[in-house]
């Protein structure tokens, strides 16, 4: 088994459609609860007129159900696990896996620790990732894509196969290129332009 997705996976993921009413409701929820307007200083030192805390959507019950509905519409059928770097991925992964289970689709969920644990079972994986799992790496919001790329590397080290990076929001517009270079499909649920803003580029994770 290869550690790269099949050749037609990116096209198949790109064609996977989120139901329009679900996508519109998710965008509206993000705008109401997660987006803040003002003057914000980014990690690069540049300023931005908007900021998004997507956890304000993912951690509300109605928002989580919208995220799960959209996520399950784009996940390839052969994906067996979902997770990513703590904490941005945690509510997304565990919430989507819970909703999926209620619909008869078993998805294992896991979290990638920021540092290896030096006691107990050790390592950086916390959760139910198994060797050979085909993995959707998720995150609440990405800009540069550093967090999902780090998570994908840890997944590979643990014997999993990262086939897709699927953040709730793509704020930066650069993560897709990094995923392509790594041989991983990329499918954000919502993009900055869909929220009414320009991409911010490479300033955050």
Structure, explained:
The chain has 205 residues and is α/β, with parallel strands linked by helices. It has a domain at 9-16 and 67-195: Rossmann fold, CATH 3.40.50. It contains seven helices and nine strands; from the N terminus they run ααββααβαβββαβαββ. The protein has helices spanning 9-15, 20-33, 55-58, 61-74, 90-102, 146-157, 175-182; strands at residues 35-41, 47-52, 81-85, 108-117, 123-127, 134-142, 161-170, 185-186, 190-191. Helix 2 (20-33) crosses helix 4 and helix 4 packs across helix 5 (90-102). 43% of the residues are buried.
Tell me the layout of helices and strands.
Elements: H1 9-15, H2 20-33, E1 35-41, E2 47-52, H3 55-58, H4 61-74, E3 81-85, H5 90-102, E4 108-117, E5 123-127, E6 134-142, H6 146-157, E7 161-170, H7 175-182, E8 185-186, E9 190-191
Parallel strand pairs: 3-4, 3-6, 6-7, 7-8, 7-9
Antiparallel strand pairs: 1-2, 4-5
Helix pairs in contact: 2-4, 4-5
Radius of gyration: 16 Å
Strand content: 25-35%
Query: Helix segment count?
Result: 7
Order of SSEs, N→C? HHEEHHEHEEEHEHEE
Quick check: average pLDDT?
90
Category from helices, strands and their pairing: alpha/beta
| Biggest pleated-sheet summary | 7 strands, mixed
Poorly predicted ranges (pLDDT <50, ≥5 residues)?
1-7
At the fold tier of CATH, the topology name of the domain at 9-16 and 67-195 is Rossmann fold
> Helicity range of the residues?
25-40%
What separation lies between the terminal Cα atoms?
30 Å
Query: Mind telling me the CATH class of the domain at 9-16 and 67-195?
Result: Alpha Beta
Overall shape: it is globular
* Assembly context of the chains: single chain
Tell me the CATH architecture of the domain at 9-16 and 67-195: 3-Layer(aba) Sandwich
- Number of beta-strand segments: 9
């Amino acid at each position: 088994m290869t550690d790269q997705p099949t050749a037609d996976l990116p096209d198949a993921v790109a064609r996977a459609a989120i139901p329009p009413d679900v996508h519109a409701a998710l965008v509206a929820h993000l705008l109401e609860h997660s987006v803040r307007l003002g003057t914000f200083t980014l990690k690069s030192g540049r300023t931005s007129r908007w900021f998004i805390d997507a956890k304000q959507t993912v951690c509300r019950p109605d928002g989580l159900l919208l995220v799960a509905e959209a996520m399950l519409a784009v996940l390839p059928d052969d994906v067996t696990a979902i997770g990513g770097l703590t904490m941005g991925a945690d509510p997304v992964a565990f919430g989507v896996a819970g909703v999926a289970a209620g619909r008869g689709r078993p998805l294992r969920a896991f979290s990638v620790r920021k540092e290896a644990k030096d006691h107990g079972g050790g390592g950086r994986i916390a959760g139910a990732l198994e060797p050979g799992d085909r993995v959707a790496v998720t995150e609440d919001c990405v800009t540069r894509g550093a967090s999902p790329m780090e998570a994908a590397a840890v997944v590979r080290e643990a014997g999993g196969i990262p086939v897709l990076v699927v953040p709730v929001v793509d704020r930066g517009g650069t993560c897709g290129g990094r995923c392509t270079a790594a041989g991983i499909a990329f499918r954000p649920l919502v993009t900055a332009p869909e929220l009414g803003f320009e991409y911010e580029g490479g300033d955050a994770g």
